[in-house]
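Section 5: illustrative case.
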């Protein structure tokens, strides 16, 4: 089995803790190309990134007070983060980030599939998320995982995935096993 396949199998998560803050801040900074483009001196740039991070965290706390942040790891290496809000009906993926150094290895796909599996197991009606339509790789991923666009705004598209009820899955599976019958008459 290739090393990348081994790494994918080893992807796991744990609840974030205060020790994970430097990693979470670095993930946030990895998505701040627009701020780096300002050409600010490094101390001013860092202050701006820190301010933006604090504002985002306050916004998440206000909008998703019971959201849980998980750290994604391969072995002992932190490779991403996932923030999920559960309102007992729907799981909402608030944020998903994979570290730039390990993007393109399927970690994002695995994390989304884990949320989908959790929704199915917990009996949730849907998984929802928002995505920047300019982020074509994320949009493509969500579409291939069965998400549908439910609302298009200029800077974000809302998407929804519904788990297939267990009975419907069993019926579909049973239907695939049976041979079609025809009657001549």
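Designed sequence:
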């Amino acid at each position: 089995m290739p090393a990348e396949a081994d790494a994918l199998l080893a992807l796991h998560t744990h609840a974030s803790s205060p020790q994970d803050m430097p990693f979470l801040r670095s993930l946030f900074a990895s998505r701040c190309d627009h701020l780096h483009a300002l050409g600010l001196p490094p101390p001013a740039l860092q202050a701006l990134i820190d301010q933006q991070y604090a504002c985002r965290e306050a916004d998440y706390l206000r909008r998703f007070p019971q959201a849980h942040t998980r750290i994604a790891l391969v072995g002992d290496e932190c490779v991403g983060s996932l923030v999920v809000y559960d309102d007992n009906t729907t799981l909402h993926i608030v944020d998903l980030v994979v570290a730039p150094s390990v993007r393109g290895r399927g970690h994002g796909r695995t994390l989304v599939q884990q949320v989908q599996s959790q929704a199915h197991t917990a009996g949730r009606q849907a998984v929802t998320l928002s995505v920047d339509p300019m982020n074509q790789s994320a949009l493509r991923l969500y579409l291939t995982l069965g998400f549908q666009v439910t609302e298009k705004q200029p800077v974000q598209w809302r998407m929804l995935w519904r788990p297939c009820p267990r009975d419907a899955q069993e019926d579909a599976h049973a239907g695939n096993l049976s041979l079609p019958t025809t009657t001549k008459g």
